[in-house]
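Worked problem 6 (solution included).
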Amino acid sequence: MSDEPTAPDDVEVPAWVNDLVPVADLARGHLRACRWAAVAVVLATVCAACVSTGPTALATGLLAVFDAAGLLLAGLLTGRLRRRSAPTPPGGSAVPLRPGGRTLAALVVLDIVGTALGLVVLAAAALCGIDAALSGAALLAGVLIAVGAVGVLVDELLPQQHRGWVGGAGAAALLVLLAGAAVLALGQGLWWLVLGLVVVSDLAGLLALRAGRRRDLGPAR
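Solution. The predicted structure is:
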């Protein structure tokens, strides 16, 4: 007879793992909703890389595209530009979302899509023979994520005001666009702007999570 110990029938799963399951399911639905917007950005990136003469020209040509993509993704992820998430589909998670989970899923998808599209910029630049495109790719990814995170934050702060969301998120997108265009035109301070966009993204994300948790807890009080 074998002396190997037998595994217990019931394995205790940590509570935080169970909490992440519905967030992952919601994020998967968000990714499906954003796929065509991401495909459009990829096509625009390839076209811009084929006609650009250098990394600055590539970043300049795609700046408005990534800025608009961040605003579009924020609208899709928050439901401002599509129907709100439907009840759990067959085969999906039956575990309820914890307060703030809805906001967390949107921010996670923003990070995933923004990082992936930044890597697409790098790959397209390399294939088209454009060197030193790392700073431009970091700028474009930072623009998309920052605009999207602010859009999610405005949605949590103004849940019932569609015009307020359009005005707030649109103003943030315009400011980011002008800042990026100014830095690219001056040809200096690019990495400082990237660092600033990272700070804005993190701060907006933290505030959005806090506001989202408070919003989710509101009806239960």
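Discussion: The CA atoms of residues 81 and 212 lie 19 Å apart.
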